[in-house]
## 1
Amino acid sequence: MKKRGIPTLEDVALSSNVSTATVSRYLNNPEKVAKSTRSQIQKAIQKLGYTPNLGGRMLASNKVRMVGAIIPTMANAMFSNGIQAFQEELSRNDITLLISSSGYDPKQELQQMQSLLASGAGGLLLIGNERPKKTLKFLNQRNLPYVVTWAYKDGVEGFYAGFNNRQAAFDLAKIVIEYGHTKIAMIAGISENNDRAGGRIEGVKDAIAEHSDSVRLVDLIETKYRMETGGNAFDALMSRVDKPSVIMCGNDVLAAGVIMRARQRGIRVPEDVSVTGFDDLNIASALTPSLTTVRVPHFAMGRAAAKLLLKLIRKDDTAKSIEFSTEIILRDSLRRIG
Amino acid sequence: MKKRGIPTLEDVALSSNVSTATVSRYLNNPEKVAKSTRSQIQKAIQKLGYTPNLGGRMLASNKVRMVGAIIPTMANAMFSNGIQAFQEELSRNDITLLISSSGYDPKQELQQMQSLLASGAGGLLLIGNERPKKTLKFLNQRNLPYVVTWAYKDGVEGFYAGFNNRQAAFDLAKIVIEYGHTKIAMIAGISENNDRAGGRIEGVKDAIAEHSDSVRLVDLIETKYRMETGGNAFDALMSRVDKPSVIMCGNDVLAAGVIMRARQRGIRVPEDVSVTGFDDLNIASALTPSLTTVRVPHFAMGRAAAKLLLKLIRKDDTAKSIEFSTEIILRDSLRRIG
DNA sequence: CTGAAAGCGCTTACAG
DNA sequence: CTGAAAGCGCTTACAG
């Protein structure tokens, strides 16, 4: 027992009159050790209070014991449920989750990536598909298994457990148009470096383009996903001469901000203006009026992402991207007009 | 570059014409390396995409590089902001966060604890103060630094960065009583193994006890922190002959469920019944009516917890528990009566 | 079923 | 300011 008094594998070997190789075998593949030897070792471990040293293990073997996730933010509930499911699935496989946040900043994301790798991550969960060449090069160079979630792209290399933001927003916008709305405004997330926000904008534009004779995009404001900024954008929109009949929001947090601000201003939703969200967070059903939004299968997605990542780590050939479908949830904040 | 193609410190040394010792120094104490050497090494690291190997580092030195957090759940926004702040502060100190969730189950908490330690955690963030002897013994035996948050206890061993749930609930209940409410019902979280939920219940009871001649606790329902269970509890309360004039909820999620269900039932808040929450999540201000609640300084608390834990890890003598005060946020869901 | 030995990638006195 | 070398605790072919 060296300096720090912490018993090592060697101490166990000495104390049980076998080699370190045998103790190691006992620890990792007990069935490869004779029964009588097993109990000797077991006793020695008990007596010494031995616990394997992670550093030694990591260095000597190459097993993945941890994976990392980098999410834009833990504030708000946007990613909570997905990450919860991701972590639970990892835990079931005896893998620990390292987590960090990037604040929607690609530079920070790269930095966090490096730091997670340095912390032993043997795989990564990333949000969205848009990142600088430098980051991609790093990932590639390290040959690190990773899964992209919250987004989905067809026919592209890489592995996804996500959904098509553009399609989902398109579907919702089609319904909005079908409901008779011709003057659409959008309050979106900031699309730079954020393909989810960007995709949602594109989806709305696509739908409008299909009805370019009658429907138009009155205004588009990009802003941070916060209730307050959503409220501010709402004020800006409603002070236009050319007011929208519906405000499509890039997520539920923005929509909550809009609905709250509308109440403060005495503007009625949906009588004076309709509102839609995206995500179907808890908040969506709790708002007054309840929010028409897009339901994203956060939980299933997080879990699937973990399973996929695990397969990649194990070099399982059956690893395959999964696209989740989203669902339009019609509630009271969107009304038929015209 | 050995087999797996992952560059090692040696590769960097080779590529920059210095010894591994110097590269290591550059990594750990750049100021001990000549400027010109630094930039050589920097270039090589860039070129190779080198990231230090954790196993090697852990084995060679004894520095703490990761700490773990075990939170009851990541679903909902309850802990999100606190954990976000915690992680950011750790990141500033080059420490990675290992995270896991216990589902409010003490057995799982212990298991997660062991697994986080086996994953290299050199310190722990724990929520609340109530845990089985077995868990405490384990913590003690490992002599592991840990900080308790979301709770605070005076004159007890251990380190806290939290607040007094009982006092906070007491303060809110006093105001409720001052507003003229005499028939109080409470929908609380499940208090078994949850001192935060328990403390909030006690606080309300304390306040009622001070007015036992005029005020009483009509009913107390303990349930999971979910909107739906909150709604169900609301139904149960409003089907009583002896209806409460106010429903104090153990947190904002429950309160949101109550307000939503009330609307569905055609029961007006606060005209027919007042409602209060706890936490001041985003949702609180977005509800209609907006929710009277207790504001918890999640962000400051998470950050302080990280700083405290870091001090404990560094064996800094100035490490000291911090108690945060909470604030009553008066909004529309609570009205004066009588 | 077991052991001797090489090696995993890093840090750190120790010398210079 | 820099390098040679020992050593951290484990796993794993390879022999036997």
Note: Residues 129 and 195 of chain A are 6 Å apart (CA to CA).
## 2
Amino acid sequence: MKSKEDKLSISSSELGDYMRISQQSASRYLSELEGKGLIERSREGKGQLVKFTEKGLNLLEEIYLNLQDFIEEKGKPLVIEGKVTSGLGEGAYYVREYADKLQKSIGFFPFYGTLNIKPLKAHPNIDKYTAGTIRSFKKGDRTFGETEYMPVKIIGDEWEEDCYLILPKRTHHIDEFEIISRSNLRKKFGIKDGDLVKVRIG
Amino acid sequence: MKSKEDKLSISSSELGDYMRISQQSASRYLSELEGKGLIERSREGKGQLVKFTEKGLNLLEEIYLNLQDFIEEKGKPLVIEGKVTSGLGEGAYYVREYADKLQKSIGFFPFYGTLNIKPLKAHPNIDKYTAGTIRSFKKGDRTFGETEYMPVKIIGDEWEEDCYLILPKRTHHIDEFEIISRSNLRKKFGIKDGDLVKVRIG
DNA sequence: ATTACTAACTTTCGAGTAT
DNA sequence: TATACTCGAAAGTTAGTAA
């Protein structure tokens, strides 16, 4: 397998030997990876052809980028490209509830809405860029969960704006960024769903 | 943890939350990693300070380099720097036994000895550069195991030489390269133990 | 607060096989 | 030859605690 696009012809016992596990476990591993949609298989007379799916390659790349981020000590900021989406439309409600706490943390009173951005590809984990945390709190009988935030620059075709990215601690790994801003960016810059923007972190 | 040299202050329950496992398992993981010499710990009042050891960082780097090799489709050859060592001194004996088979495979009759080279740092797995295999065989009651080989260039300060690297399939992962050559390289170039050389593969 | 032991409980593994 | 199922054994996980 010289290229990541290649198919690999391997039998379950060869894989077992290579991994120093039994043929049975190797067979089971392959079938689990297939079940998770990470690889595709096709039976051959002797052995089977195995190749990564798009999803599998993305997972590998995510792991790779996380390691890269850790091992190569770059001062370079992280720039992630993504597509503007509508999210769940709850942004406005939550920002309203968190607004006064946000103001204390980030220094401005937020626009009642979020810009949701879905990254186009795998990217390293951004947790470590966290600048601060808003502790969980109650209003009446409703509990609002802990949320981290970090400064980011949102970059469009002909504009850019300093904003904050919020990272609710509970709903980890939806992989959609929620951006808090001073004003309505959709109106200010004429942004609409599907537009490509960059998020510069750090 | 912004740098790989940093210590991380974390409690076993924080780690458990982060990994979505129990506090007990997080504690066990840390203690296993410590047992394997991959991390160092020191108890703090609240939590513990954790940092990677040299060995741990090397393991991470090896994983990283393997992924890099797979994901970034470089045609660049792999160059690994290492130190000449004496190995176990068995080289001469084994080369003698494999000599006629080696001649058929690599096209020249090998010098009865190997140059052993110990890589200075982590490097990607070189299995995929294998050019051919010498099947296991018997001589009298002695069995000689399967061995793979690949062409490499050994590069010293003021010289270089085309050689072959042999990869005995049984004794995987000693992480010392054994080099087969046309003549006695130690004599030819005045190489001695501890000298730095480069191995160019692919 | 911690870390980490013990004792259940749960999951994973692989030898024996079926196909 | 293959792959892959079953099921008893081995390994991993965690609730309950001790320190």
Note: The CA atoms of residues 95 and 112 of chain A lie 5 Å apart.
## 3
Amino acid sequence: MQRQAITIRDVAREAGVSVATVSRALNGHANVAEPVRRLVHEVAQRLRYSPHGAARSLSSRSTQTIGVVLPDLHGEFFSELIRGIGAGARARRRHMLLSSYHGDREQQAAALRAMRGRVDGLLVMSPFADQPGFLEENLPPLPTVLVNTQQAEVAWPAFEIDNHAGAVAMTNHLLSLGHRRIAFIAGPAHNYDARERLRGFREAIAAHPGAQGSEYEGEFDEASGHRAGRRILAGDARPDAVFAANDMMALGCLYAFAQAGVRVPQDIALAGFDDIPLARFVHPSLTTMRVSIAQLGGRAVERLLDQIETGADANGPVSASDADRQVMAPELVVRASCGGPEHPASGTEPRENTKA
Amino acid sequence: MQRQAITIRDVAREAGVSVATVSRALNGHANVAEPVRRLVHEVAQRLRYSPHGAARSLSSRSTQTIGVVLPDLHGEFFSELIRGIGAGARARRRHMLLSSYHGDREQQAAALRAMRGRVDGLLVMSPFADQPGFLEENLPPLPTVLVNTQQAEVAWPAFEIDNHAGAVAMTNHLLSLGHRRIAFIAGPAHNYDARERLRGFREAIAAHPGAQGSEYEGEFDEASGHRAGRRILAGDARPDAVFAANDMMALGCLYAFAQAGVRVPQDIALAGFDDIPLARFVHPSLTTMRVSIAQLGGRAVERLLDQIETGADANGPVSASDADRQVMAPELVVRASCGGPEHPASGTEPRENTKA
DNA sequence: CTGAAAGCGCTTACAG
DNA sequence: CTGAAAGCGCTTACAG
């Protein structure tokens, strides 16, 4: 059974008016007589008419949709980002066209180009944006806001987590607890967040006379954290504290310590970054930097929609200034792994209702 | 700087051919002379032309996009679902229009209607689908597949987790361990998954002579699990085992037991449902039913795309049969909370690379 | 307040 | 193999 799609012409015929009048009535234009407006609405409802999105977009030159181009959909970072963007879009009655691609440069270029004529603006997270020309060549002529993305030069408005400041804050926290020999488990070098966190760690160590930093490689996953933990224990000068560039690696490291009978925080302090849900549940609970990814997404979409609505949709690289690069500060969360309170209020603190 | 959008006419003019030829060349139609094809591609590339999505959709009557309508974006269930759908869509070169709405019936109705002319098919998860007429009245005339959704009558193809079978399996597992008095912490009654899990528990208990079930209310969150745990301990006949309808409640319950000094599994066994990432990290690690949400989404999108491509896009409620209701069985994961191995391979088992 | 008509940017029979 | 033309389903100046 192929239901025949109802068009605006059907409504017009049935209501005995022109399609122009139907369009005006349904779009809430003022210049429609009240009885006509009512009639049209009544007929449209009876016929279960709903306008054809592509047709409407083409003639009105507006899609009521924002495009979201991400490098991946895996993991909590992206799910929180999408949730934040989705909430922001919904609040302002926009749809969301989601395009993930695999890490390949050409694939992302294609994804960006394919957005033309489908969306009114773009939210982009791209590992290739630091390659000169990449965005200029592939971004459709649309307002665009970047998220957690390093640009070749500041050209588009951008929102990002202040990874550098967060790493400085955490390092300083460890130093303030009296730790002097601090090991850092770094994330992958190709990752922007990872580089910024490493940079923050190095700066904070360098700024503190007497502090001594050491660095270990990691891949942002549990396994590499575990390997780093073992290497740390195998070294001859055991550090006072370990700062892992993200929580997953901190958990892997924690497990390596547990296996070796090294107690946290008594024998060695441990800290992570991200405040993933697990962080408060492990034993000891993990000191970390909390980043609000959903809020990052929400703010970015706000900014994008403002830009779309003011029509000042300067889309080229000329419009942005440094003022348009907004960083969001993470927050230090002290837990037991650095001598803070254990498992604060877990089990009593109400959490979000989760589906199933 | 408002870059002027390049249209197919610009390419045609520049290449000295008609727009029809440009269209054919760019869409890979066979009937274009090779030199012409090359010229057109070259010009299009030089001009950085990309076709206007709405225009293309309107004239070709195809959007290369699937619509996804969900009740919420919160929590791991939805992020995994989106990830699975996204991977499936990408594999078959489709875009994904994501529309979440708040729990309200009218809002979902509007979200469904707004999909017309924007997508070629729909993936829908709806708590209102059990109300007769809701889908019939609001679904656009498009191929549609339902996900984890209870229909008034089987009318659309549907994919869902076999919550009933999972609950039966878990209850039988607890019985097989020798437990006879089993408490069940239920999820919210308005939730389909919750109802199915409860139904499975009751059936398995009823089928086992000598087994004795008791039921406690819960809301699928940690706090309600904690409350239920306290009530369970406060009762006079302490059960041998507790089966929580999801992991979050199991964790809350676990914490209540820990506070009361009740040991798991020595004093009481505990099991959950979902296998959330936390489940293997808590102490004791949690026995649970693993459900592959991403796979659920992936299969559903496969089915939808097949339907779209065969053009047999029967979209009305007549086409589906019971054969079109596919259930996916969850898998029992035995861990320490029921006497299984503690923290299996954690820290060594490589996990997915997570962004930051 | 209302309608006829042009136009949005493509694709696709239809001729040739 | 190629082009002129119609058409997809809307919106929006333009007249009246």
Note: Residues 17-21, 24, 31-33, 36, 55, 57-61, 117 of chain A lie near DNA strand C (CB under 10 Å from a C1').
## 4
Amino acid sequence: MASRQPRPAKETNATRDAIVAVADRLFYEQGFAHTSFSHIADAVGISRGNFYYHFRTKDEILEAVIASRMQATHDMIAAWEARDGSPAGRILCYIRIVVGNRGKIMRHGCPVGTLTGELAKLGHPSRPGASAIFGVFRGWLSRQFTLLGHARNADALAMHVLAFSQGVAVMDNAFRDRAFVEREVERMTRWLADVVAAPVEA
Amino acid sequence: MASRQPRPAKETNATRDAIVAVADRLFYEQGFAHTSFSHIADAVGISRGNFYYHFRTKDEILEAVIASRMQATHDMIAAWEARDGSPAGRILCYIRIVVGNRGKIMRHGCPVGTLTGELAKLGHPSRPGASAIFGVFRGWLSRQFTLLGHARNADALAMHVLAFSQGVAVMDNAFRDRAFVEREVERMTRWLADVVAAPVEA
DNA sequence: GTCTATAAGCTGATAGAC
DNA sequence: GTCTATCAGCTTATAGAC
């Protein structure tokens, strides 16, 4: 089926990858709307014109960035599953992101939450794609709660954990209060222990 | 001291007020960076040039918008205090914003949280001004918890309530799941009842 | 594959007529 | 006070040389 001569189209392209990596970082640090081709070109070390060999529009770069973040999300989850065999331990890995990534969150917020919010305001067609990254965490967390014996409330519990992380991220970005973050993580850890201890619902 | 002839400088200006009101709405709906003078001018019904009689720069409009939101925040809190005499009832007023304003939050997020986040990404000088609105809620909630006998943890409890509202706002914006919002508000209401019932700490 | 040169449009901002 | 006309600069995007 696949023609073999011109190149399988899956060949790695160093420049394209560099553009996506830099755009990923700048979209996170400065926002999508405020990041121009010039910003990205300067950081990558290429000319503005060279962009259009790899991408036709700015929106296409955004799509590639979202796809890259989606892949990174799956990789992170796979790493948690390889490291920790218990569902509770894995959920804790998620809860503790707000501590592990605190420096970046403090300055630029949660990468998923801020991108989803910005694309919502822009009425951007890639908004569902960004929200889908939240969806991956939601589904995965839900599966962990099901394994803990909370099949009936698994999705609600997953959403509660997601809301926790977003609330902490927004407040840390606004106030940069380290004690607050640690307090909320401890509170959530106790909450998780209670959920684990009561696997049967009324 | 105050000269009386040219006008006390506090005179109401209908055009200026209209600019601020429209900018307030558009900054919320579309974001600050993505809202141009043309957008505002078209919505107000004036020319682009007329702007500079009332404001010298776009940042000055933002400052006026933040000041206006700050005033609206104080007014809202005053209304809660006039309507509900109990500290717990007042805190509940705050908790229930995510239900009362759900339509707008779903589409554009929390006005305070999204503006603070955007200004952080832009490295904008008005970021502290936007965060100060959060600060007003924080201080006011803290005072309510103090009245409930939780003086020592008042600020931590206030921050927990703020984080709740931001977490729910971000997730509602991403998933638009009404049942989730109502569930989280009920959970928070039960939490508040527990806090009220245990006014003495270990 | 990367570059330079260029286009058309929008941006915030200014000057001056009315 | 509001307007029109205008500015320089930046934006995304294209064409074509190398």
Note: Residues 36-38, 48-49, 51-52, 56-58 of chain B lie near DNA strand C (CB under 10 Å from a C1').
